[in-house]
Amino acid sequence: MIRKLVCLLLLFALCAVGTAVSESTQITAGDWAFTHAPEESVLLLREDGIAVFKGQEYSWTGDGEFIRLAAESGEEISLRFVTTEEKTLLYIPTEYIRAEEYPGEGLYGAWIGKEREGSTFIFREDNRFLEDGTFTGTFRIDEEAESFLLVYIRYFDDTLCYFHMDGNDALTVDYPWTMVETQAAPAP
């Protein structure tokens, strides 16, 4: 009898935990800003299915892990959106092209941002990296998950990024940014 009661309580607890996890990953409407600039909207998700990202209007859907944006022009963007008890992360994709003067295979080599001037990565074969010419550390690649973990020497916490390669000369890195709900600017 006690054994059945313990099993029933355990089953109930597991169901409650599963519900809590699924609720925490549900993507809902909101206005999101970077933690370092909480007054400036980065991503607005409206309940009517309209989104504004980087000043452009899209329709949006969310599936618990990704926000999918679609513009009338046909452009589509998938943004990984992760919410935990501690923080909310928005993974913003940046496209890079391989620098000819520092070739490599796969992720290894030097990469220059296509749109963001000064945005660079150098991934060395000894698993050391240099980001934007300033930030250094080591990294580990998980090819199966298409991700890499940046372990910074200073300034930042360890950072898990996702990547996709198009051939050997084009790289997209989804870099996580900690987000907060947009706050009203203080009155002058």
Can you walk me through this structure?
There is one protein chain. The protein folds into two domains: 30-91, no CATH class; 92-176, no CATH class. The protein is mainly β and 188 residues long. The protein has one helix spanning 2-24, and strands spanning 30-34, 41-45, 50-53, 56-62, 66-70, 76-83, 88-98, 109-113, 120-123, 128-131, 135-142, 147-152, 159-166, 170-181. A hairpin with a 6-residue loop joins strand 8 and strand 9. Strands 1, 2, 3, 4, 5, 6, 7, 8, 9, 10, 11, 12, 13 and 14 form a 14-stranded antiparallel β-sheet that branches. It contains one helix and 14 strands.
Feature tags:
single chain; 188 residues; mainly beta; 2 domains; 14-stranded antiparallel beta sheet; 1 helix; disordered N terminus
Brief description of this entry?
Mean pLDDT is about 85; it is low at about 1-25. It contains 1 helix and 14 strands; from the N terminus they run αββββββββββββββ.
Mean pLDDT: 85
Q: Separation of termini? A: 68 Å
Low-confidence stretches: 1-24
Oligomer: single chain
Biggest sheet overview: 14 strands, antiparallel
- Rg, rounded, reads 20 Å
Sheet/helix structural class: mainly beta
Strand content: over 45%
User: Strand tally, please?
Assistant: 14
Helix and strand element order: HEEEEEEEEEEEEEE
Count up the domains.
2
Give the overall shape. Answer: globular
Q: What's the tally of helices?
A: 1
Kindly state the percentage of residues in helix.
Answer: 10-25%
